[in-house]
Write a structure and sequence with these properties.
With about 260 residues, the protein is α/β, with parallel strands linked by helices. About 55% of the residues lie in helices and about 15% in strands. The protein has 2 domains: about 160 residues, Rossmann fold; about 90 residues, ProC C-terminal domain-like (ProC C-terminal domain-like fold), CATH 1.10.3730.10. Helix 6 links the parallel strand 5 and strand 6. The radius of gyration is 21 Å and the shape is elongated. Bound molecules: NADP nicotinamide-adenine-dinucleotide phosphate.
Length: about 260
Amino acid sequence: MTLEDVKVGFIGFGNMAQAMAEGFLRQKALRPGQIYACAKNWDKLCKNTEEKGMHACRDAQELAASADIVIIAVKPYLVAEVVSPIKELLREKIVVSVAVGYTFDKYEEVLAAGTHHLSVLPNTPVSIGEGVIVCEQKHSLADAEFALVEGLFSKIAMVQVVEARLLGIAGTICGCGPAFVSMFMEALGDAGVMHGLPRAMAYQLAGQMVAGTGKLLTATGAHPGVMKDAVCSPAGTTIIGVTTLERKGLRSAVIDAVDAIERR
Ligand SMILES: NC(=O)c1ccc[n+]([C@@H]2O[C@H](COP(=O)([O-])OP(=O)(O)OC[C@H]3O[C@@H](n4cnc5c(N)ncnc54)[C@H](OP(=O)(O)O)[C@@H]3O)[C@@H](O)[C@H]2O)c1
């Protein structure tokens, strides 16, 4: 099985599944005919799939019979209910879960013994091929199956393998981070508008600045503090903003936000 002929099915075709499917199509990792999906609302599913040439399946049974890689993308509280009737079919498949909190050990309780499965946490920038997909180190995929999944996911994301105990915090930074960064970009946009920039232009500038700064960090491996220092000349303008943000508690607010999520 290769990326040329693999069939990928989504059980649940909401925000995350559609973001991944969009990413696969945009990055030309898969052709529309290689993607299958099922969901609760049939009409909505048909609209979201067939218009783009993907296949809509009536139910999880039909989907599991059609796909080689089955991606479980329903809300976590529905996983056991959705998986239970198709357990036997899934034994023959590569099962990948994106459900938050559903680790390898938890899946061992709901899947049939011997099922090949992997738990991952993607984030929404996968839709434009710029995501992060955190994979749990413990899985039961054969080497060739993992290579196939990793090869597919790396077309839409940076793939990072972590131990189970780090899956939650890595998923929080990558999965909740887009909301935090969006708030930051919105605030920059408001400040830009306050000082005369048209709003659309302010958001474009903020967005590209964040994208470029992020790429600089990952491409060079530079320490974020060093990147910050590089922009702050003595008695210059940037250091005025940096010290103001420090006084307002930007960094501790971010740390507290992540800590609050981890302690919930
Ligand atoms: N969104 C994120 O940023 C994010 C990040 C990491 C992980 N995740 C994980 O991704 C999973 C999906 O989240 P989401 O944000 O995409 O949720 P969502 O937008 O609510 O999508 C859930 C999908 O499940 C479908 N569904 C509900 N009951 C079903 C059933 N019995 N059989 C088949 N499909 C059913 C829904 O169908 P209808 O649309 O027809 O109701 C919908 O397509 C969750 O487990 C979440 O933890 C999400």
